[in-house]
Amino acid sequence: DIPIFALTPNISTARRLALYRNVRPLHFELHTDRDESLAAAERLLLDKGLVKRGDLIVLTVGEPMGQPGGTNALKIVRVGERL
Predict the structure, then answer these.
(1) Is residue 83 in a domain?
(2) Owning domain of residue 50
(3) Which of 39, 30, 31, 33 is closest to 79 using CA atoms?
(4) How many structural domains is the chain composed of?
(5) 24-32 long-range contacts, Cβ below 8 Å, gap at least 24?
(6) Structure pTM?
(7) Which tens digits make up the pLDDT trace of 9-64?
(8) Strand-pair category, 4-8 with 23-27
(9) How open is the CA angle 74-80-82, to the nearest 5 degrees?
């Protein structure tokens, strides 16, 4: 199974996400800048040992940042290339 890490600043959202199979919610403080948030998410996953340098990960985000709504951006990243 491929893990899904769901990073959210909202504790109640994290609790709901925990009900889904293979979803591991993580509390995460958003930054106002999308690229800064994505880099911070990558660092968090690295620091927790959930991914390693060289892994491919898929990041999704909704913009504007911090507003409820749908996902409208998707990025495929090789861990460690931007850090």
Answers:
(1) no
(2) 4-78
(3) 39
(4) 1
(5) 24/50, 30/65, 30/66, 31/65, 32/65, 32/66
(6) 0.82
(7) 889 999 999 999 999 999 998 888 888 888 999 999 999 999 999 999 998 887 77
(8) parallel
(9) 65
- Within 4-79, residue ranges assigned H as helices are 11-17, 34-47
Pick the more confident residue, 71 or 25: 25
Angstrom distance (rounded) from CA 57 to CA 55:
6
The one-letter code for the residue type at 57 is: I
The CA-based dihedral angle spanning residues 17, 58, 51, 5, taken in that order and rounded to the nearest 10 degrees: 0
Nearest to 28 by CA among 8, 4, 5: 8
Residue with tokens 């709504």, as numbered in its chain: 69
Q: Decide if 35 is inside a domain.
A: yes
